[in-house]
């Protein structure tokens, strides 16, 4: 699912990261998603943060690396490139949608 991929990406790019850290980035709760990703062996507990409550830190597993064909996290795409592609996609979709609306209005 998109939520699973988003959560995996957040963990991969920000590990080690706490559940609260993931939720701060996603903007929604992620307890169930974390449980599912652990059950699929794509993420694991990698330690505890030295802060009140000692929250669990999560990171990706070797299974994650194998699944996505990675030998190192350095092989992940640069986030700046992803943001630029996403912005270009938004611009394209906006322009394309406007052109379709214009054509529909003229018929």
Task: Give a structural overview.
- This protein is of the alpha+beta class.
- The chain has 2 domains: 2-71, Winged helix-like DNA-binding domain superfamily/Winged helix DNA-binding domain (Arc Repressor Mutant, subunit A); 77-107.
- It contains 5 helices and 3 strands; from the N terminus they run αβααββαα.
- A 3-stranded antiparallel sheet has the order 1-3-2.
- The longest helix is centred in the last third of the chain and has 28 residues, at 79-106.
- The N and C termini lie far apart (38 Å).
- The mean pLDDT is 84.
Q: Short summary of the structure?
A:
With 107 residues, the protein is an alpha+beta fold.
**Which CATH class of the largest domain?**
Mainly Alpha
Q: How many domain units?
A: 2
Can you tell me the CATH topology of the largest domain? Arc Repressor Mutant, subunit A
The overall average pLDDT, rounded, is: 84
InterPro entries: ScpB_csome_segregation, WH-like_DNA-bd_sf, WH_DNA-bd_sf
Keywords: Cell cycle, Cell division, Chromosome partition, Cytoplasm
Protein name: SMC-Scp complex subunit ScpB
Task: Reconstruct the topology from this structure.
Elements: H1 2-14, E1 17-18, H2 19-26, H3 31-39, E2 43-48, E3 56-60, H4 62-67, H5 79-106
Antiparallel strand pairs: 1-3, 2-3
């Amino acid at each position: 699912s998109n939520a699973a991929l988003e959560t995996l990406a957040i963990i991969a790019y920000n590990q080690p990261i706490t559940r609260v850290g993931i939720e701060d980035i996603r903007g929604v709760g992620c307890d169930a998603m974390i449980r599912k990703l652990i059950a699929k062996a794509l993420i694991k507990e990698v330690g505890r943060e030295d802060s009140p409550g000692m929250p669990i830190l999560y990171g990706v597993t070797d299974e994650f690396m194998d699944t996505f064909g990675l030998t190192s996290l350095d092989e992940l795409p640069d986030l700046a490139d992803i943001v630029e592609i996403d912005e270009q996609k938004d611009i394209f979709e906006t322009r394309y949608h406007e052109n379709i609306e214009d054509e529909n209005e003229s018929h």
